[in-house]
């Protein structure tokens, strides 16, 4: 297995070992105890004595001591004689004393004699010792309170999957199923049906504890009280053992949570049919929830039962109404299993179609595909099959590439059914936008969807189709987007209970964001979020929270943005949704108010996941935030490389409106920083023409900021300062403090190039104050560095751009143009053009005169 760095954890264990001299690492099989032990001792000075007993050693008295003796080439014998026993202890004590650290891996496998002798040796010698055990109760050597090895978080699981060439986008689902246990995560990522690692995790538990955990795995909401009522008198003891083994946690409200979903699945899969039936019977008698009682009772039956099937279908409808789509899907599928072949025509297929829709809403593609497969094999009505196919598309999330056949069949099967044709065309529009990057084709499908919905008399579907059309028109810079959205809102005056993210009400919020009406957007989102929460659909809640996080960042509420983004990411991971959008939002808020390294990690994962799913829209967004991270990290060359990719993607997608993904000014700033002034100018001019025509005030302010830096680099300092003051004023009026801080930061740079040090310092201090007030730590650090970290006066006082200053420094060191180009990742022609501008600005005519000037300045 590829090692995933856990440097902070290693350092924490090393500090504890240095302080107390005793550390025991505890955790279940596959958690990474051995890897952590190896990483800790690898950096320790002095001699380390290693010991790792084999699984069979625990039954052989003195087996571990024999291994220790062999490794040291010293005689150690174990007999029943008292004198020999004393000699044995003294010999082991001498062996241990020779080492500075004793490292015992899998110390729970030590035989009793070896454990006793080693514990005594450690006590008498005072040698530092670090051990690993499967559970805290197995600690017998150090006497220290065991240190629980934590599971991987979702980010680490993503890195693990990437390192092994596995699907990156599945990190959230794999993390939930594995509980963050690395070995189990790897087996799940490799699509192992019943992972061996899951079965190994259960090995420390006895049979009675297995039965109790099986009950917990089968219960819909297991609690200690429920397990006791189900006849498990030793439930507290059994669950305590499972907690000690790292398999289970107990919530504040007494709920028993099996940390790894794969462990619960392994428990159920490894049980016999009779064992499962007995557990369901006990739970049916113990539970107080009528729906859960019905589920357990039905799980004991295997022969058709019309009355029971009908009750299950009714319970499915009730669960759907209560916002529990996954439970609804499971109940409906169980109803189908028990339905007699004499069931009325259309009854079973209706249940299956409903199950597919519910499963998709709950993010359970497996249940959705099962329902679709049963429909296809049962000769069901076309309408029900099409509904299930549409649900299968919805269950795919952002991964719409590769669904051509599914959508093509749905389109043919929906012929003559306008309501379903509208739904299919709407999914085709979504696919055209996300996977194909073609808003033109998406618009055509959206128009077809609206026409079919109108024919069907379905105003809700018509509003959804017009919403999609308005979204595409906005991308294409079509002014009719607003009138189309108004028409959709007229058809749907109140926010819908479900599919809120596809409603005109949510698009109206997005338009407010694009138009920089941020207070309006925030107020509307705070009203829509409770609607999404009541319904309980993960996709709706995640989109509301992500948009709210974006608005909070732009309005300077970085702390609140972090909370919303974290919640969205948690829901996304828990529901098994496509992770790209959630990781993108996390990168945005971390860049603003969190850790730059975390922002970079989230952005990298968002790029990878979006690329895997062929999601062109979020790929461009993830690359944009990556470019900003490079800018903040003062890597202008890297920023240009990434932001050029964004430009290429947006051109390929025929995006016209610059207000949705505002990369234009950022690319221009990065180009100025590396001295590519002509390309920077073209970028600004092209974007400004469109932004002015469409009235995009925030975009124009960002272009003013970029042009200010451009004018400053070109030697037009007065014009630069005027533009940057204007950008500062516009961002202040728009209520965008983060962007205003960036304008002040650019003003500081421009003033310093004019050698107006006092004005430069004032602008810098204002920028730092703005960034600090809103909690934008990364930007505040960058603002401080622009003044304090620049080159010394020999170069810094010459009024050059950052890129020009680096060129001058290299000239001063005797570098040729080709060497400068290689060092700064520029073309030789670009270096030559930059030197020409530098000569003109500094009043010199040659390289020799430039070097002389530098020496004089020094």
Automatic annotation (TrEMBL):
Gene Ontology biological process: regulation of DNA-templated transcription
Respond yes or no to whether keyword DNA-binding is given for this record. Answer: yes
Does Cell membrane appear among the keywords? no
Q: Which UniProt keywords apply?
A: DNA-binding
* Domain HTH luxR-type per the UniProt entry, residue ranges: 793-858
List the GO molecular function terms.
Answer: DNA binding
- The lineage's top-level taxon is Bacteria
Among PROSITE patterns, the record links this protein to: HTH_LUXR_1, HTH_LUXR_2
Q: What is this protein called?
A: DNA-binding CsgD family transcriptional regulator
